[in-house]
Amino acid sequence: MDEATNKSLTASLAKSWLEELDATIQSTKERIHDRIHADLPEFERQLQTSISVQTRLHTLVTEVDSLNHSLHDPESGLVPSLVKTLTAHSTLAQKATNARIKHEALSYLLRCSKEFSSLEGLVRNGDLPEAVESCASIEQLLKDAPIALAQSDVYLDLKRKFNASKARTEEQLSDAYSRCVLVAPHELTIAQSVQVRQSERTLSLSETLSSLSLVSLDNHLNTLRRDITTHYIDILLTQPMSIIEEGFKLSFFPSPPNDEKLESRIDNLSRTLHFLHAHLFTYLPAAKCSSFLQSLCKPVISSVLNNLLISNLPYSFNRLPPFLELVKDAVSFEQTCIIELLGNDSADRPIKAWADGVCGHYERQRRVHILENTRAKILEPEDFSDTFHVEVEVVQAAAEPEVVPIQEEGVAEDAWGLEEDDASASAKVDDSGWGFEDDTGSAKTGEDGWGFEDEVNTDDMDKIDDGWGFDTAEEATVPTGDDPLPDIKPATNGHEPEPEAEDAWGLDDDATADDAPPASEDETNWDDPWGEKTSAPPSTSVESPRPPPAPSIKSPPKVATRLEKLANKGKKGLNGHSPMNSPSMAMAFSPNVSSPSFSPAIASPSFNAKVTQSPSPSQPSLPSLPSAASKLAEKRPPDLSISAPKESYLVSTSMKDIIALVQETLREGREVGDSKSLSPAHESSSAPGSTLYQTAVSILDLYRALYPVVFSGILQSLEGPMRFSNNTLYLSTEIDIIVKELHGSNVQTVKERFCECGRTFKLLSESWYGDAIEKQRQLVDKILAESTQGFTSTGDQDRYDECESAMNRSLQEIRRVSQKWKGLLTKSKYYTALGSVTDAALSRVVQDVLALGDIPELESHQLSELCRILLALEGLFSEDPEKPSFVVAYVPSWLKFSYLSELLEASLADITYLFEEGALVDFEVEELARLIHSHSLHQNYHESEPTSPSKQLRPLIVLLFAQATNGLGKNWPLKKWASEQPRPGGRAENLDEPLSRANVLNDWNPDIQEKTSFYDPLHSLSIPPTPPTLPQPPLSISSSTERILTSPASVLPTQMRLAQIVEMVHAASLLHDDVIDESPLRRGSLSAPEAFGNKFAVLGGNFVLGRASAALARLGDPEVIQLIASVIANLVEGEILQMQDVESPDGEAVPSSQVAKNAWTLYLQKTYMKTASLMAKGARSAVVLGGCADGEVYKEVAYAYGRNIGIAFQLVDDVLDYEAAEDTLGKPGGADLQLGLATGPALYAWEEHPEMGPLIERKFGEAGDVELARRLVRKSAGVERTRALAVGYATQAREVLQVLPESEARAALEALTERVIKRRS
């Protein structure tokens, strides 16, 4: 039917549908009818069943109602009748129970009444033991009380009365105990029986103790233990007491302490304990007796140890024997009383254990006591006036004595022991060990190689003085021949100086024994802090060897004037009179200034200390010179008395106290160790005296650790570290003496600790000594470094004043150091320290001066004057004003500094002469080269170079554009990779590699000697070497797609070299410009043509261009080579344009617009060619080397910036030619007009003043033209308009930079545009 449509639906189709529907309905009716007939019998059966159930239910309900009436009827029902019967039965049962409980309660109460009545009677009669038993039974009875009485009033009342009776019984027992045992501070009574109060009953002590309850007994025993401990144990062991025993009573009476023996205290305690044991302890209940007695053991043991033994442990060894007797008594007391009487464990014997270690206890207590005393001594305020002098002997070389005399006159010996032929006794000049000749004309047979005279009067050989003017009392034998050389040691301490002192320095060698003038004590003006006096020299003097003096000069130079005396300083030294010594020898005992750290331990002489109050020597000792032992042995006399030099230094008196404590501790340790009564009880115990030995070392350790912390403020002062250094040095020497006195196998460990301690103190002394020196060295170095700023620009008066102030401050500081340290140190250490500080100042000055590049004549004079300020330090190294100073011996750089101060004003002839004579041996070759270079260039090209900021403008632009664009170019990865490769145009070191062989180039460059060579006249055909294979970029490196600046900003080696090339091209152009312009000045100094002539100036410029071209080729970039080469052409073109004339039409007074335009075009074109071209193409080249390819805008930005700023720079320069003064500009004012050049201001003035035209046409050639042109420019706005034009170009340069990303380099380029406009020179 759903599928039928209007077209397919017909009557026949609808009829068939109706017929089919009728058939279906009929079939359904038939099925329903059949189903109903089938289920009808079952339905009828179920209906009958339901009727039957309903009937039975009705019957059941009727029967239930009948049963309910039978059960619950109030009158005849079964349940009400049962309830009534049960209630009656319950009432009868309750009555029976109540009657039974009342009977039990009454019976219990009757029993309690009887027991309580009995207890009351016992208490009243005083039968306390029986009362206690009764209380126990009543208490049990109360516990068994019926439950019904537990909360009744009568029971509670009965219980209260019982507790009261029990308490009364306990109270009476306690009272009885208290009256039996009476413990008082000065009396102890133990009664054996006592009568109960208010009764006639007497109780024994045992009954009382046994009747007390456990709680009460414990309380009484605790109280008893406390009272025994307090009143007897502690008191008897801490105070002298006398005991009187009267029956059952002990009485205690204080005794006078002066005649008391400590053993009596132990006896008193023992007597007391035995008394208690006999009269009290035996009556204690067995359950409590043992525990109570053992509880007394610990207080007794503790009191014996703390109050008797430990507290009375002696502080001195002489009191130790009586104490040992006391210890024995204590051990016996422990056995008899504590173990046997009180029952302590026999294995637990603390007193015996303590007694076995009594030696260790004593030593440890002494250690604490000694260290406390030491600490108090160290913490005492420092008293700088409480000092003493320690005399020391300078230890010389073990292989030879300091004095090397000659046996007979006329025999010469050189310093190196080399034999020479002695032809005659005529005047003969010996060569020194260094090869310098002596030009002396004296008739002496010869001198040693060091310039010292070796003549000695052998008759007076037995009166040879030591290096400080003290004579020895004994003679030392000097072996001859091949015998070994023994150590020459002084035989006396030299406490008393001889009346005559010898010239230990050999400064009086010309004076003979007959004509030597005596020196009085009042003739010296030297304030000697060592307390020495100057005495007359003896008749015969023996020279001490000294470091070699400065080399002598054979004959005075013809050209050297001021330096003649300076060069001849060493001449007198060769005769043994000069103090000038070369630094090579001074280094044997002076700090090494070339090393980064100064080690005073090497610089300081060695000493043997000896405490004395005598005055110190008068001259500092110098180290002996090395020589051949065999030669010395052959030429020494067989018997020679030599005294070692002696010096002294200041030490705090408290050091004596420290050493005294150490020695006293060691003495006591020896006594303890030697005592047989203190032998260790166990093999594992330390040996007697070992702790005291260790304590002696701890005293020194305590001082070493505590003093620098407590007195840190003093150690920050100038003299504080030196005082501490002296103290520790003194302690180290005293420790050495102590170690030598220690003997025995049991002190080996202590000796090792002492040796280590001595080394530590010595190292500490050297460390503080060196640190103090280094601190002052750094201070003077800081003063000079920060204030002088490398001595640059000293030609400026303000800078010169700053440098002069710094030099004076360093001079004052060194003098202050001298005042503080003089007299505090030994002379050798004093001069070594002072020399090191002085050397730091001189070395700083020498280093800074030699680091200067070119020194103009004015600055050279100023530097020389500054150096002379520090020459005043020479006086600090002289102890006799009439004798030369020995400064060279202690200041290694003194000769170099003194020569430098003179060389700064010397001529080249002077320097050449001194160099040829060997007077400048202290200078390195490079230093001399720089000095000669500086002197020869006082009027050279470097002085003609611009020194204002404009000098660095061109390379600065190159480098800034490199930083501003590196990383932005397409080829930056390749350029970056190439800069790291060993190839042309790669790493910085490869930029110096020649592209052709050195013998082909024949281009000598002293800076790269290994890569260049001179012309070789012999040249043969050779097979060229195989060129090395150049590294190729890996495939992973390709053109960059990123445009990110490098971070941090970087400059490639090729870009750095480009900046140098640009500056070289600029410098060459200046040389040529000065020739063309005939300029006498360049930046305030003589120009190169004026100083050397036109030929040398032109050749010099060409040479610089040649070197620049070679360097340019090694960059390896054709575009850059083309750009820079075109710059050189532009420079030439610009110079030619500058020579062209500016002409106007005939008969015209006012220039036409075309003429003015031509003039401006010519002027700006010339400005670009000569100035802006190098800046523009240099900047563009930097960008090309950074990887920018064609089509990238950064190359155009660089070129536009350089072109605009270059023109602005030249416009400002033309303005300054009219504005700036000659001293500011560095060249004569109006130079452009003098050269006939019409610059921007003149061209602008031409527009305002027509009369300027003829002047420009004839190039200001007639007289008065220059002055008239300057007036016309001033009257016009030409200067202002030119500056405004420059501002316009600078603004354009700044605007083009906006294309670049922001960076520090771009900001610097922007700032550069402002500086160019605002410059004034």
Automatic annotation (TrEMBL):
<feature type="compositionally biased region" description="Acidic residues">
    <location>
        <begin position="450"/>
        <end position="459"/>
    </location>
</feature>
<dbReference type="GO" id="GO:0016301">
    <property type="term" value="F:kinase activity"/>
</dbReference>
<protein>
    <recommendedName>
        <fullName>(2E,6E)-farnesyl diphosphate synthase</fullName>
    </recommendedName>
</protein>
<dbReference type="InterPro" id="IPR055148">
    <property type="entry name" value="ZW10_C_2"/>
</dbReference>
<dbReference type="Pfam" id="PF22766">
    <property type="entry name" value="ZW10_C2"/>
</dbReference>
<feature type="region of interest" description="Disordered">
    <location>
        <begin position="608"/>
        <end position="640"/>
    </location>
</feature>
<keyword id="KW-0418">Kinase</keyword>
<feature type="region of interest" description="Disordered">
    <location>
        <begin position="420"/>
        <end position="588"/>
    </location>
</feature>
<keyword id="KW-0414">Isoprene biosynthesis</keyword>
<dbReference type="GO" id="GO:0006744">
    <property type="term" value="P:ubiquinone biosynthetic process"/>
</dbReference>
<dbReference type="InterPro" id="IPR033749">
    <property type="entry name" value="Polyprenyl_synt_CS"/>
</dbReference>
<keyword id="KW-0808">Transferase</keyword>
<dbReference type="InterPro" id="IPR046362">
    <property type="entry name" value="Zw10/DSL1_C_sf"/>
</dbReference>
<feature type="compositionally biased region" description="Low complexity">
    <location>
        <begin position="608"/>
        <end position="630"/>
    </location>
</feature>
<comment type="similarity">
    <text>Belongs to the FPP/GGPP synthase family.</text>
</comment>
<dbReference type="GO" id="GO:0046872">
    <property type="term" value="F:metal ion binding"/>
</dbReference>
<dbReference type="GO" id="GO:0004659">
    <property type="term" value="F:prenyltransferase activity"/>
</dbReference>
<dbReference type="GO" id="GO:0008299">
    <property type="term" value="P:isoprenoid biosynthetic process"/>
</dbReference>
<keyword id="KW-0479">Metal-binding</keyword>
<dbReference type="Pfam" id="PF00348">
    <property type="entry name" value="polyprenyl_synt"/>
</dbReference>
<keyword id="KW-0460">Magnesium</keyword>
<dbReference type="GO" id="GO:1990234">
    <property type="term" value="C:transferase complex"/>
</dbReference>
<feature type="domain" description="ZW10 C-terminal helical">
    <location>
        <begin position="807"/>
        <end position="933"/>
    </location>
</feature>
<dbReference type="InterPro" id="IPR008949">
    <property type="entry name" value="Isoprenoid_synthase_dom_sf"/>
</dbReference>
<feature type="compositionally biased region" description="Acidic residues">
    <location>
        <begin position="499"/>
        <end position="513"/>
    </location>
</feature>
<dbReference type="InterPro" id="IPR000092">
    <property type="entry name" value="Polyprenyl_synt"/>
</dbReference>
